[in-house]
Amino acid sequence: MMQIESSSQEFDSKYRENSFTYDVKRDVYNEETFQQEHRRKSASSGNMDIDITTVRHHVQCRCSWHKFLRCMLTIFPFLEWMCLYRFKDWLLGDLLAGMSVGLVQVPQVLTFSLLARQLIPPLNVSYAAFCSSILYVIFGSCHQMSIGPFFLLSTLVVNILKLHPFNSGHLILGSFIKQDFTNPSFYTAYNRSLSVVASTTFLTGIIQLSMGMLGFGFVTTYLPEAAISAYLAATAIHIIQSQLTCIFGIMIHFHAGPISFFYNIVNYCMSLPKANSTSILLFLTAVVTLRINKCIRISFNQYPIEFPMEAFLVLGFSAFANKINMATENSKMLIDMIPYSFLYPVTPDFNILQEIILEAFFLALVSSSLLVFLGKKIASFHNYNVNSNQDLIVIGLCNVVSSFFRSCVVTGAVVSTIIQDKSGGRQQFASLVGAGVMLLLMVKVEHFFYELPNAVLAGIIVSNILPYLETIYYLPNLWRQSQYDCVSVIWMVTFTSAIFLGLDIGLLVSIAFAFFLITVQSHRTKILLLGQIPNTNIYRSINDYREIMAIPGVKIFQCCNSITFVNVHHLKRKLLEEMEMVRVPLKEEEVFGLFHENEDGSQEGKICRCFCNCDELEPPPRMCNAFQNANILVLIAGSHSSVVKAFERNDFFDAGITKAQLFLTLHDAVLFALSRKLPESSELSVDESETVIQETYSETEKGYDFKT
């Protein structure tokens, strides 16, 4: 800050010492005269050559190598980072981050059934996560993203699983009861339940593929950064609540749907007397260790790397628990309840797709939004952009592949992504290493991690998710800084709806509310009446400066927003009020006379008339025509060239308003208006716009000289 202030002071002193003078002499330009003197570039002046022969209807297009290469890098982003990978600077960080993520993902896979309320073989989840990671490495756009199943998404299919339970619904409600594997009906119901999960995952992937190909990634551009932060904060709170089972070592009656968050909190409070003190102690030990670890910083080639304490906690407590019975909950009891160690890939059941389309839609919406939001958050830290449509397509492919392994819906793994980012992961190579380490450990040494206490894993998850709650602390500052655009209101609505109504309905409420605010803000257009700073070509609002001078006979309006169908009526009303004009409704006989008047009056008194309707009807009169009839000249200034082109494409110009009434700058329009005294429409021609602007300004003389 001190360097910036000193540099600004030096600039101010140099500005005062030096004198700046400019002298401008040119004709007053409107769009018509300007386009005659300065020709536009043709559409084929770029790298693409288009040769169109109208006689043969033959079109030849030639695309440059640069555009082809850019298209390939968009479809396959891994080509860019592979070619530009900095082995000396990034390799160590990616290896450490990948090993840390892989070691943490192993116990997460083993305890997935506990939180997802669905007994899926861990090896199936591992293979689905590995294949999804490979696909995202090839097609994904976020450099630090880790892909895997997210247990909170499984709560969205509880209603479907209730229709096809395999243990009388005990598991869905939170009661883990080991069934008799010798009963054939148990295997039939279990396979049926996995088939429903696979079909739901497949349909979710198809919906996400369609959303990406149709370009639905643009929806995220309408959500401000505050909405994304609020949604991730609400997700973090849901994750923390789900970990209370592991923290206290208790099971509760599980609720899903709106307001389920508070039902589950009440159930946890009622079960607190049964809490396991050993689980609480292990949880606190893991949290305190990770908090102390934040003070340990490693720098490799000027890149900060956090010590991989998560990996040491997983390995250390797993080894310790294999030697000593710690009397706490672990994943071994869940593994004993799963009848299969691995199920070979099969085709999902397509006959039940119509029954699960609503749940699949919500899963697709939440899964893709969580991936895009998490990617945007990580990308903003590292100053690069993500392609939302590309990520929608790739996550759709991931879920289609995962459905063949009978796994749940995958998305951005929040905790693994945070660990990969803070551990020094720079590119997707870290995700590739993490997925490989996870699968290798699950295949070779899976039993080593069975005894790891669930409370240690909960401590790792909660410690890494806490930074996403820091936005709550900065909410008062956000409220003071953004009262006009209501960003803080969007934050509160997104956060409360995601907590009260769930991640699915809360997301819909957030998007709808953001669109509503955009509509309201565009409707409440701010229109200013401008005046001139004396002896300058500067125009400001007449309410802002004391020395503002209103130009006699000229009223200057400035619209501070884009003019759309939403706010055009407000603009009309404001113009009429400032011009002291009112809209007077016509009487019935006047309306009758408008539709029955004729030039010669020869048809007066006749009841029946005949006329031809073959001719093209004249367009209805516009606003501009009303001012012209009142001898008020309307001039438009400062329109962007794209707006002028849109006017030309949509036949905006006619006898009522021509290009001669569009001026390049506001000062051009004012000088033209002052040089005319109530001109007729015939006087507004190109040949007569010979007004010349001559401005002389000198810093030393402190004055302007205007000549017209």
Labels describing this entry:
mainly alpha; Transcription Regulator spoIIAA; SLC26A/SulP_fam; 708 residues; elongated; three-stranded antiparallel β-sheet; 14 strands; Solute carrier family 26 member 8
Low-confidence stretches: 1-8, 44-60, 597-607, 678-708
Measured distance between first and last alpha carbons: 47 Å
Shape type: elongated
* Major β-sheet profile: 3 strands, antiparallel
Strand content: 5-15%
What topology, given as strand order, has the largest sheet? 1-13-14
| Portion in helices | 40-55%
**Structure classification:** mainly alpha
Oligomer: single chain
Keywords: Membrane, Transmembrane, Transmembrane helix
Protein name: Solute carrier family 26 member 8
Main location: membrane
Pfam families: Sulfate_transp
Can you describe what's shown?
The protein is mainly alpha-helical and 708 residues long. It is 53% helix and 8% strand. The chain folds into three domains: 77-521, no CATH class; 525-581, Transcription Regulator spoIIAA; 622-674, no CATH class. The protein has 31 helices and 14 strands. A three-stranded antiparallel beta sheet has the order 1-13-14, with no helix packed on it. InterPro entries: SLC26A/SulP_dom (IPR011547), SLC26A/SulP_fam (IPR001902), STAS_dom_sf (IPR036513). This is Solute carrier family 26 member 8.
